[in-house]
Amino acid sequence: MKLNKEQELFIEKKLNALSKSKFRSSFHLRNYMIKMIEEKEIETIEKHCMDFIEKNLEKANNPKDGHQTPMKSHPVFIAQHATATCCRGCLEKWYKIPKNRDLTEKEKKFIQALIMSWIEKEYRKKDETCH
Ligand SMILES: [Zn+2]
Fold this sequence. Notes:
This protein is mainly alpha-helical. It is 60% helix and 0% strand. It has a domain at 49-61 and 68-131. The chain has helices spanning 5-19, 31-40, 42-57, 75-82, 88-95, 105-125. α1 crosses α6 (105-125), α3 crosses α6 (105-125) and α4 packs across α6. The structure holds zinc ion (ZN). Zinc ion binds at residues 66, 86-87, 89-90.
């Protein structure tokens, strides 16, 4: 998706803050997730990302809040833990999005952009490390 300069800067700032959290920065793409991105292509992952946001985060008062995002199996899930978009509790704490109402379209798009920025950054890092 296309971001304007202001949104880009905001996301950059947030990713920077997240990288300073010991817990958030402990999450990384696993090899099988990198493979998945290569096989499915980034546009598909971006679509999955919105599906997960709508299914797991959009509605307020999810009784499973805090437990709806697995720690494995999909690159978006790992990215959600790394970006503190894993549940409404974390979204409220990190982004001041109140958890007692549904997400707006704008918030959904922001969350998607944030997750995808993290994935793209992590994905690029794969070539910089020794194997
Ligand atoms: Zn959470």
